[in-house]
């Protein structure tokens, strides 16, 4: 490690400005890059002609995950890449796949210096990309705005570090800390601006998860309904161990348009399973936690990670939310509070803003109309 540290070059005054721009550029394809993270790359050249450094190439991980951001930026820069600096939001890959390693491509293009942000925990990379660059004569400055870059690819990092997808739990709370009325169907708690923000959050996740209770009571669509973003809807996962979901429900009827998975026990009704499968629903086997009898979440998440899912937005009811919180499986918590009270008949939220402030680090606080939006890092990633 000491030899590696000596090989790194120090951060320069302009590095944070360009890395911040690369992080913003990476967000363009958030949630749309398959099993790969959404990475941004800027190629910056300074010819010492008085104009100062300028961006000559930009790249973001392509839709579906290939080609990588470095390839796009190098293609746009062309010959101007020689002698330039590359700002990359994640350590360049070092492994041969369908394409050569990005670190190798940066060396071949004549890049003089690479500034990277987040470290890549993928065992095929994990320091090897930096080592390949240094061996090729490239200066390397790592971990510039690493925490900021990591927030945009939390799911990918969690999948490689912990063997499960990154989990965001989102709850809408009334003024008196309720999330709905049992048996009362959908209860409107937040306003249109907060609702639009929720759809934007959905678009940035690989999948959205609810329990069978929410599915049966609300018959939700669980999609992204922002104008022009219908194709950004995440996959849908329903925890339904006893297979109560009906083929007549919205999630089943639209399963051929939006990927829909039901996590269920192997012993679930075979006829209903066949009817749902005919509608386009797929299934993932789950087992019961021996203590609670509920779905064993760690094992389920491990299986979902094996399918390539990196990030899941949990929008279930109180029981699902409490299960994820108690199992310490929440990486980011979003609480949105509305202005109206529901009353004693309402379902109490498993956590409120005050409790979240005591337990977690507040990342963001906004006001959307009459609603307050809070995001917390739960420190699990």
TrEMBL record:
<protein>
    <recommendedName>
        <fullName>Riboflavin biosynthesis protein RibD</fullName>
        <ecNumber>3.5.4.26</ecNumber>
        <ecNumber>1.1.1.193</ecNumber>
    </recommendedName>
</protein>
<keyword id="KW-0378">Hydrolase</keyword>
<comment type="similarity">
    <text>In the N-terminal section; belongs to the cytidine and deoxycytidylate deaminase family.</text>
</comment>
<dbReference type="GO" id="GO:0008835">
    <property type="term" value="F:diaminohydroxyphosphoribosylaminopyrimidine deaminase activity"/>
</dbReference>
<dbReference type="InterPro" id="IPR002125">
    <property type="entry name" value="CMP_dCMP_dom"/>
</dbReference>
<dbReference type="Pfam" id="PF00383">
    <property type="entry name" value="dCMP_cyt_deam_1"/>
</dbReference>
<comment type="function">
    <text>Converts 2,5-diamino-6-(ribosylamino)-4(3h)-pyrimidinone 5'-phosphate into 5-amino-6-(ribosylamino)-2,4(1h,3h)-pyrimidinedione 5'-phosphate.</text>
</comment>
<keyword id="KW-0521">NADP</keyword>
<dbReference type="InterPro" id="IPR024072">
    <property type="entry name" value="DHFR-like_dom_sf"/>
</dbReference>
<dbReference type="Pfam" id="PF01872">
    <property type="entry name" value="RibD_C"/>
</dbReference>
<dbReference type="InterPro" id="IPR002734">
    <property type="entry name" value="RibDG_C"/>
</dbReference>
<dbReference type="GO" id="GO:0008703">
    <property type="term" value="F:5-amino-6-(5-phosphoribosylamino)uracil reductase activity"/>
</dbReference>
<dbReference type="InterPro" id="IPR016193">
    <property type="entry name" value="Cytidine_deaminase-like"/>
</dbReference>
<dbReference type="InterPro" id="IPR004794">
    <property type="entry name" value="Eubact_RibD"/>
</dbReference>
<keyword id="KW-0686">Riboflavin biosynthesis</keyword>
<keyword id="KW-0560">Oxidoreductase</keyword>
<feature type="domain" description="CMP/dCMP-type deaminase">
    <location>
        <begin position="13"/>
        <end position="140"/>
    </location>
</feature>
<comment type="pathway">
    <text>Cofactor biosynthesis; riboflavin biosynthesis; 5-amino-6-(D-ribitylamino)uracil from GTP: step 3/4.</text>
</comment>
<comment type="pathway">
    <text>Cofactor biosynthesis; riboflavin biosynthesis; 5-amino-6-(D-ribitylamino)uracil from GTP: step 2/4.</text>
</comment>
<dbReference type="InterPro" id="IPR050765">
    <property type="entry name" value="Riboflavin_Biosynth_HTPR"/>
</dbReference>
<dbReference type="InterPro" id="IPR016192">
    <property type="entry name" value="APOBEC/CMP_deaminase_Zn-bd"/>
</dbReference>
<keyword id="KW-0511">Multifunctional enzyme</keyword>
<keyword id="KW-0479">Metal-binding</keyword>
<keyword id="KW-0862">Zinc</keyword>
<comment type="similarity">
    <text>In the C-terminal section; belongs to the HTP reductase family.</text>
</comment>
